[in-house]
Amino acid sequence: MEFLRTRRLRATGLQRASASLDEVIISALLLSGLKNSEFCALTVGDTVIGTGNSVFVVRGPSGRSRTVYIPRRASALVRQYVSDVRPRFVAPGVDPQDQSHALVLNEHRRPYERTGLYRRVVRILTEAGLGDRASVQLLRHTYGYLAYLRTGGNLLFVQRQLGHAHPRITSVYAKLVDESYADLAERIVAGEPRAADVETGVCARRRPQFDCETD
Question: Which DSSP letter does residue 106 get?
């Protein structure tokens, strides 16, 4: 992403606005793991602008939605884009303050559709030197891997963030992390937790229908 930041800072005028848009697109996809179609469907109100939280609200075709939590720096980029860049791309007669409109607009003042966004992402990543690997899927899978690795292997978090229907799909990221089983076994006794800590820290948080003495 340093490549995108540097290019934005060196550009001027409309080129700078386009470079800022590139940075927002890649950063948002990489730091959220959203699918191409999910990102295209985001409105301004589905972001920190409308929710007040560092999230993307992804709305499915059935009307159901899920909340994807993103780093605060990603939301800061979104705020800056909506404030300083997006108004340049809003069509005449459209209120730039209307949060029901698409978050990401292209230089032709239209919302992105899947093919157009995919091509832009491929172009940006190719220019960054990723060659044949350049794709939206690369950003999504990179997010899945990093989310698993940097949360200590929290598969439930990764599953919910990516919107996977079944944990089997998410478990593929666990296979990409090479960890010593001997080291993992030692972590279990690190700090020697007391029996009382185990009872209050684990059993107390479990669902009522489970019996901590028999499970």
Answer: -
